[in-house]
């Protein structure tokens, strides 16, 4: 009996080591995702505190406050579900390998090792960028507004369409039984396409959204620098740099998506991608809540105040005048204004 016990233990250990070797990339990706999840929790706490403080200072409208609170809670719940699903999948791979292939509970929350929250986190990040675009382009001419809304609608359709394919892995897999399936159907049915499309198209969609945001910010930066001087408008440079980092973080998974040589890197980035989609908008919320993000200066207000300085005072603008004028720049966040 002892010999049988040792044989069973050896077989179990050998199976465990084989399972770990086959899933080593997934293990590393889960560790990276867990580290990013810690960052998500830290940013969530900071965002919640800043917005709660702004609530007492009446810097935001009630509608904006409710939206931001709901958005923060929803995204952190998606991040929590993601890391939980990834860890459970890893546990099942190492200790219950048969469950994955025999229709266990893991299959209901994961698709090929990808948490089902992936498209929702992508939609959450894209939706936040769309909302920022709508805020920044408020007050433009009717023709420009229609053009912006049309572009945003197109980008939203692309994001939603590629994300919804993620849930059709099962039906597409059954299409592989066809006699001569189309190459596209075969690629999608293998499960690779349904995961690759959202990861590949998300950077493309966000490049379009970031281009709209940066274009609007450049316009206001030049307007402020032309009126107040080149030393002003640094907040715009910071938000443009943030957009560049945001796009870079989303672009990396799409760039390595089709390379078999970079498969380990692709697995790491694929597992971390949902957390990245949560971190990116949280960073923007922190910057906006701190008053250091995209500022919108109303031309009418700027004209009135600069006119007062130029014509009501015989002296040149002093440092105090410049400081007062800079402090009166209106910060638009959603439907609220901060002076």
TrEMBL record:
Name the keywords, alphabetized.
Membrane, Transmembrane, Transmembrane helix
> What are the transmembrane regions?
26-48, 68-91, 144-168, 197-219, 239-256, 268-289
Task: Write down what this protein is called.
Answer: Uncharacterized protein
Q: Give the species this sequence originates from.
A: Galerina marginata (strain CBS 339.88)
